[in-house]
Specification:
With 439 residues, the chain is an alpha+beta fold. The protein contains eleven helices and 20 strands. Among the domains are: 90 residues, PDZ domain (Pdz3 Domain, Roll); 196 residues, 2-enoyl-CoA Hydratase, Chain A, domain 1 (Alpha-Beta Complex), CATH 3.90.226. The strands form five sheets. Strands 3, 4, 5, 6, 7 and 8 form a six-stranded antiparallel β-sheet that branches. A six-stranded mixed β-sheet has the order 10-11-12-15-16-20, sandwiched between helices. The longest helix is centred in the N-terminal third of the chain and has 14 residues. The radius of gyration is 22 Å and the shape is globular.
């Protein structure tokens, strides 16, 4: 059985619907590709019964315009087109760009929210908590759009593009850095540490995206394996998982995490059920837990935001059937459906290097819950504080999580820090890049 990266992200099958031609013959006119997109959607799309009966392809100058026109709105905010190479690279962390994220604090100051270690930004020493005061010589306010969001005009991710940033550092000094976009291997784990809290060992894990390690079969992440072994060897009694900027990724990696977190007594029990459209209802399958390691927890505390989407929400939904799941921060994004790429099932798409990734399935947890388009509500709403490093107890959401472990609640003082961001990084991306948001 072939092993694909799923996301609920992507959920990839181990069967083939066709035998693609060995010698690609690209469609020069574009009409054949548009027809292939519609045919594939009619066969696999989760909401295929909502598609139009026919399409006038002459109305759409691009494949993207066609897909946007036939998507089932408002529920489908997720189906997209990309290339086969971009799709495959993203799920194993092969990126291009500067390699960082940013977030606004409550005072509307803009901070670096995370940096990938091997990216151009990471190699230049950038850190979470640096305030961005100018981009390419202009103050941040100059990039505000009429809709209330921001367009920082950093260009596409292609290597060679240079942007200049001015930062105010935590010590009050300033620095201006020119940074050139390049290809790099991104990391998923941004921080892992153990706190000693009144004699109790509390693990903290900042996890940015569900990316697999290239070349492993079955699909797994060595970063996840190393992290879970670190916490197991430390003998943690509580665990805080920080998913506040995690847009999703591989379902296979999500399963790896779930199998580490589930209690031994629940190994073998139902993890989830997936379902498809009426044409593919025979493909519905059940997935069961297979316990990994010896971590044993009655609850897991998650730090979340509207940037927590897709596979992040899958983990929350699945665990909710078996242990106490506590959400601190903000409501999640709301993506209870998933996808797998369709070029393997259509020779026209494959030969023209068009990767169609529409919504194709929904996943229900062991209690049957599969509908959370509004996201999961936070149990305790606490403001973000990107001005502090990962694992710093001044970070409001981390402090609130530690407070909950100590007292079984979150103090009113911390709850009073909550604010609803007018714009978040996930708002700046669509399609594949929304699954793995970074600049």
């Amino acid at each position: 059985m072939k092993n694909f990266p799923w996301i609920i992200g992507i959920f990839l099958f181990g069967f083939w619907a066709c035998d693609p031609k060995e010698d690609p013959v690209p469609d020069e006119t574009g009409l054949e590709v548009k027809e292939a997109i519609f045919a594939s959607m009619s066969e696999w799309y989760f909401w295929n019964e909502e598609l139009p009966a026919s399409v006038d392809y002459s109305k759409y100058s691009t494949n993207e315009e066609l897909l946007e026109a036939i998507k089932f709105k408002p529920l489908d905010r997720f189906s997209y087109l990309t290339t086969q190479e971009e799709f495959n690279n993203s799920f194993v962390g092969k990126n291009a760009g500067h390699g960082f994220g940013y977030a606004f604090a409550s005072d509307d100051k803009l901070y670096i929210s995370f940096v990938f270690d091997e990216s151009p930004a990471g190699k230049d020493g950038w850190k979470r908590g640096w305030e961005i005061t100018q981009i390419n010589g202009k103050p941040i306010a100059d990039y505000k759009t009429s809709s209330g969001g921001y367009d920082f005009k950093l260009g596409n991710p292609d290597p060679g593009i240079t942007n200049t940033f001015t930062f105010k550092l935590p010590d009050g000094s300033t620095t201006t850095r020119s940074n050139v976009k390049a290809e790099y291997q991104s990391n998923s784990v941004l921080e892992k540490k153990v706190f000693d809290l009144d004699g109790k060992k509390v693990g903290y894990w900042a996890y940015q995206s569900f990316k697999a390690t290239a070349g492993l079969s079955p699909t797994q992440s060595t970063e996840v394996k190393t992290s879970m072994e670190f916490f197991q060897n430390a003998g943690i009694q509580e665990l805080i998982i920080d998913l506040r900027y995690n847009g999703g990724g591989s379902v296979a990696v999500a399963e790896q995490i779930l199998n580490n977190l589930i209690q031994t007594a629940n190994s073998g029990k139902l993890m989830y059920v997936n379902k498809y459209n009426t044409l593919k209802s025979n493909l519905a399958t059940n997935r069961s837990f297979a316990k990994i390691g010896s971590i044993s927890l009655d609850k897991v505390i998650f730090i979340t935001s509207r940037g927590s989407a897709s596979a992040s929400e899958l983990v929350l939904n699945v665990l909710d059937s078996y242990l106490d799941v506590v959400l601190i921060g903000d409501n999640t994004y709301g993506k209870p459906v998933g996808s797998f790429p369709l070029s393997s099932y259509n020779t026209v798409l494959k030969n023209n290097n068009v990767e169609l990734v529409p919504i194709t399935f929904a996943i229900a947890n062991a209690d049957g819950k599969a509908d959370y388009f509004e996201g999961f509500p936070a149990d305790f709403s606490v403001g973000d504080s990107p001005q502090y490093p990962w694992g710093d107890e001044r970070d409001l959401r981390l402090a609130a999580a530690l407070n909950f472990i100590q007292n079984g609640n979150v103090s009113g003082r911390m709850l009073n820090t909550y604010y609803k961001p007018k714009w978040e990084m996930i708002d700046d991306f669509e399609g594949l890049r929304q699954e793995f948001p970074a600049y």
